């Protein structure tokens, strides 16, 4: 999350009103309902991990063992098993 200067987004009268309540303090303004973004949506990491997990599952189906997958993807064997299990559920 990056900070935005209040004078760049708020009219002066609203800024003065806010200062009456939180003068000099940090204030978080949440998104409006319906405008929330899910984790990883903005950065694209969610999609990147989905593609990686599908790749891991396909390689597993093609005979690559869990220890080899764990080593190649720098993940624990437990994580690889979890990914395989999740991918199986999604495919059925």
UniProtKB/TrEMBL annotation:
SUPFAM superfamilies documented for this protein: Homeodomain-like
Name the domain of life this protein comes from. Answer: Bacteria
Q: What is this protein called?
A: Mor transcription activator domain-containing protein
